[in-house]
Write a structure and sequence with these properties.
The chain has 367 residues and is α/β, with parallel strands linked by helices. The chain contains eleven helices and twelve strands. The chain folds into two domains: 121 residues, Aspartate Aminotransferase, domain 1 (Alpha-Beta Complex), CATH 3.90.1150.10; 235 residues, Aspartate Aminotransferase, domain 2, CATH 3.40.640.10. Helices cover 34% and strands 14% of the residues. A seven-stranded mixed sheet has the order 2-8-7-6-5-3-4, with helices on both faces. A three-stranded antiparallel sheet has the order 9-12-11, with helices on one face. α2 runs parallel beside α7. The protein is globular, with a radius of gyration of 21 Å.
Length: 367
């Protein structure tokens, strides 16, 4: 099985660590270098082009299945989550999965006047109750690659009048994201979306905008860009752009190129490629006597992938193996980049990986 990236990538290692940070395509590196060189030389237009930010926003909107009017840009997931947390009513209950990533939880807990509650991921939907104001969770868990039962959580939240926040950082870029199904989604761009660090996207439904306060609105949040350079912005954007952070131009000049590459390849093809490699790895692990963490996937996941993907649901390119986290240094010494998370060996496959990469890591583990 060949890679999908063609000549776009040039890894010097067996890189199986996309859940930590994705590789930058050549075109992305070129775009960042070009802007950096222009900035060093004295660029006439200043720090960068807002048109590149707009193009990245539009590309992500297509990937996320929403109109660009629903997408805000920023630099980090925690800032986006903090915006949502700041808009919650005092005493509101926020439900999280146990072991959820800290950036999803901490912006709520540091307030001190909200009511955090936790439940096992597999029973998260059952834990939604009257009085739950928000359910916040990752579509794919960072520690072990388990996929939440998205349909069940969405139905339970709707039944109890709770809003929903999905962190798609570990799924956007390989798993189709219907962001319009959720009140809020947040997505760090530097993993499967292959963007430089400093790229993050927030989607907000029109209804959720009614209570979300644009607390870091600035010049770029105006309805007419550059209409208010000094003094308060008199008219904020009527779209989710009112929630923009000022975008770091170096990162977004690169992001436009990375997202364009993913659109060219197509998420169906990426899904089929990534999950096929993960299945090969899981099978090899079992032959070696290791049992990976099962991916808890609902039927809705396979239904969200078009028939052209030609693979069954229930797969995830993030594979965690309990008890093998201590072997990360050994693998690194062999030129294989993986991660240790919560005691697990975490191995992640993406479009620049091949079957040879799977076989190589299995060979070292068998040693």
């Amino acid at each position: 099985m060949e890679t999908l990236g063609g000549d776009e990538f040039a890894p010097e290692t067996t890189y199986l660590n996309t859940s930590t940070c994705g590789l930058l395509p050549r075109r992305t590196v070129a775009a960042v270098k070009l802007l950096a060189d222009e900035l060093a030389a004295g660029r006439p237009g200043g720090a960068g082009d807002f048109s590149e930010v707009t193009a990245a926003r539009q590309s992500f909107a297509r990937i996320a299945g929403v109109d660009e009017e629903r997408v805000a840009v920023g630099a980090s997931v925690s800032v986006h989550v903090g915006l949502i947390a700041a808009s919650m009513e005092p005493g509101a209950e926020v439900l999280f999965p146990e072991g959820e990533y800290a950036s999803v939880i901490t912006p709520f807990t540091v307030r001190g006047d909200l009511k955090p509650r936790y439940a096992p991921l597999e029973s998260l939907a059952d834990a939604v109750r009257p009085g739950t104001a928000l359910v916040a969770f990752s579509s794919v868990q960072s520690a072990d690659g388990r996929i939440a039962d998205m349909a069940a959580v969405r139905a339970a939240a709707a039944a109890h009048g709770a809003r929903t926040l999905v962190d798609a950082s570990q799924s956007a870029g390989w798993l189709p994201l219907d962001a319009g199904d959720w009140d809020y989604t947040v997505t760090g761009g530097f993993k499967f979306l292959l963007c430089p660090r400093g790229v993050s996207f927030l989607t907000v439904t029109e209804q959720a905008q009614e209570t979300l306060v644009p607390i870091h609105a600035g010049t770029f949040a105006a309805e007419e860009l550059w209409s208010t350079t000094y003094g308060p912005v008199e008219e904020l954007a009527r779209s989710a752009r009112r929630y923009d952070e000022p975008a770091p131009f170096l990162s977004y000049h690169g992001a436009r190129q990375s997202l364009a590459l993913l659109e060219e390849i197509g998420l169906d093809a990426v899904y089929a490629h990534d999950t096929a490699l993960a299945r090969r790895f899981r099978a090899g692990l079992r032959e070696l006597g290791h049992e990976p963490v099962p991916a808890s996937v609902s039927a809705a996941v396979s239904a969200s992938v078009s028939a052209s993907a030609s693979v069954p649901g229930g797969d995830c390119p993030v594979v965690a193996v309990p008890g093998l986290g201590h072997r990360v240094p050994e693998l690194a010494q062999a030129g294989i980049m993986v991660a240790e998370r919560a005691g697990n060996l975490r191995v992640t496959f993406h479009l620049y990986n091949s079957a040879a990469d799977v076989d190589r890591v299995l060979d070292v583990l068998s040693g």
